Amino acid sequence: MNEEQIVMDIIINAGEAKGYAYEALSKAKEGKFDEIDDLFEKAEEALGRAHDIQTSLLAREANGEKINVSILFVHSQDHLMTCMSEKNLIREIIEMRRERQA
């Protein structure tokens, strides 16, 4: 698999994780808290895939392989880190909503 495909896989998986997290937030707004855990599990799986790809690139570079750092690569890293932060914030927002409803 070439570097562009690897980078796109990071973006796709991070985007999928973000989508699940925002879907969970929508469910919380509707009061459907019983549907949230499954969505966060799917988000974690997608995020795990993106993170594994990132880790493999880091390991390759650490082993001396030259990794091309393109704008697309930088974008994928930005996308992944933003997704991780948003997922954590969304989880906190949902917990606050859950506490308010209790």
From TrEMBL:
What stretch or stretches form a coiled coil here? none
| Domain of life, per lineage | Bacteria
Q: List keywords of the entry alphabetically.
A: Phosphotransferase system, Sugar transport, Transferase, Transport
Where Phosphohistidine occurs, the residues are: 75
- Pfam families found in the cross-reference section: PTS_IIA
Q: PANTHER family, alphabetically? A: PTS SYSTEM N,N'-DIACETYLCHITOBIOSE-SPECIFIC EIIA COMPONENT
Q: What is this protein called?
A: PTS mannose transporter subunit IIA
Species: Clostridium gelidum
